Amino acid sequence: MERTNEERFEQLFNQITEIAEGNFEFRYKPSARLDHIDTVGTHLNMLSEEIAYFNFESYANFLIRPAPVVLIFDSKGRLTNFSSCFWEILGYTPPPQGIEVSIDSFLTEYSIPLLTEELNSLTQELNPRIFPLDFNTADKRIFRSNCSLSLLIQEHRYALLIYEDFKHKNLKEFSGSQKTQRQSVRTRSARNWVLLKNLRMYSLRNLNKPLPSLKEIGLLHHTNATKIKAEFKKAFGMTIHQFHLQQRLKQAALLLQTTDLMVKEISKKCGFGSEAHFSRCFKKQYNQTPISYREC
């Protein structure tokens, strides 16, 4: 069900409150409208990412819970066992006994392929790697947490360990291994931020031609297609190809208003293979043809 503007503003207000209180784990979930409210939400999400990495003093007030929240699920993603506090953290009522629940139902659409990728690359190593996942809360927000995955060989099950962050006034010093782990998580967050900025600049520097496939973009930026698709859409509310098309059309609109170039020339400058294709895309974006737009 689509959220009302009032609900979306309420979520923005709640996230600002969380940031003010030093909690940078919640994320605003963009709607399908991609309007000015979603723009503010996207900037808040990016702000949370930046503060979480650069505000080192705030990290001194957080600790990783010694006993992580545990979810046990089978090869089809069905939860077979779980920590009871999992429901409390996300604000849900525990399901009645005997009711099947899928782990995917709690993950955002961008985190589902990330978990799938981790499952496909899972090994029996003693120190599984930490990776972030976004969970949907009951009040339609997003809670980001660091997780690790283990294979329970004898039971043919998987164990997802969720390391929830808690404020703690009387915090003891981290052990060396905990500090190293936290620093590692911050480093990955910073790398994601740098990757997003590089992808955005790459798009803006290539407005004169279509972008290659996600796989090729991944090779250029030393990452994979799944990560680009998930992280870019999470940050900007659209895929990198949608963003690139939007910027090309904005450039075309500016050229139509400020130059005497023919429509055919503008379509070529903005990387469209034909004037007809350019006109179709332009009309879909601006609800009028390039010629009509120029005459306005």
UniProtKB/TrEMBL annotation:
Coiled-coil regions listed: none
GO molecular function per UniProt: DNA-binding transcription factor activity; sequence-specific DNA binding
Database matches in InterPro entries: Homeodomain-like_sf, HTH_AraC, Tscrpt_reg_AraC-type_HTH
A Pfam family matched in the record: HTH_18
Occurrences of domain HTH araC/xylS-type (ranges): 197-296
UniProt keyword list: DNA-binding, Transcription, Transcription regulation
Matching PANTHER family: ARAC-FAMILY TRANSCRIPTIONAL REGULATOR, REGULATORY PROTEIN POCR
Protein name per the record: Helix-turn-helix protein
Organism field: Leeuwenhoekiella marinoflava
